[in-house]
Amino acid sequence: METLDDAGVYQLTDELAIIQTVDFFTPIVDDAYMFGQIAAANALSDVYAMGGKPLTAMNIVCFPTESLDISVLKDILRGGIDKMAEARVTLLGGHTVVDTELKYGLSVTGTVHPKRLVTNSGARAGDKLILTKPLGTGIINTAVKAGVVDDKTVAKVTKCMATLNNTASELMQEIRVHACTDITGFGFLGHTIQLAQNSRVGIKINIAAIPFFPEAGELARQGMRPGGLQRNREFYSPCVEMTGEIPAHWQDILFDPQTSGGLLICLAPGKAARLLGRLREAGVEEAAIIGEVVSQPRGVVIVTQDENE
Ligand code: CO
Ligand code: CO
Ligand code: CO
Prior knowledge:
By secondary structure, the chain is α+β, with helices and mostly antiparallel strands. The protein contains 10 helices and 12 strands.
């Protein structure tokens, strides 16, 4: 709990620990079925980030029975169930309350061998960093609400948010890594700073290597920013060093709160190219090596821009 890790872990025996987590939120897309998938993928992600295998889940639903038809809820739950089936997770039940605002998510239980647990406090100086999904979903979702995003972009971003982090998690466990976290509401920089602080290291990232949706860059330039982006910037800026001229819309993308974002994995430099190759082979095509761990300054993320790397 004290390290702000992704989920809670409780050791049962020498060989078995359970990982527990809960996540639910208001709709971020119009399509009820896809919202169900995204909410489930997002809730499962905290187990994957710790190198665990999710086993069971419970639905959490807040539903406005007066303003929405019950068919909407059916579509959301169907999306969640399909995503759980893909993750080989058994739905055990759930709880529904009447609320003025719709919310959906899961509480998830997973397992991990206690010695194979991956936390956000194990990064070592010299490690390389791999990010597995592109950034910018918060900016694009805000623009979707404003009605200025085309259907093709909506479909692309929706699919990305609904994609499980299971493949990346399994591959990182095979190859053995030092630390991991998933990128969600605190944005890329927020979660990276937490990782740096908990691991007592510094992190240097190369913005030219970071995968992001090009549409998000354009929309940020037009002033599309979710409320959480500004809050993340205010909270985390003191721990960020921007070197050189980092364009404002790129800074926005780094602070942008993500829904069901990718994994940020720290591993020995000699293994980074191998894991990247396996990720891409397995269909995690946007994965990229985006920076490295340094010994100083601790708890700080240094943002550089090196096109040649
Ligand atoms: Co998380
Ligand atoms: Co979470
Ligand atoms: Co009950």
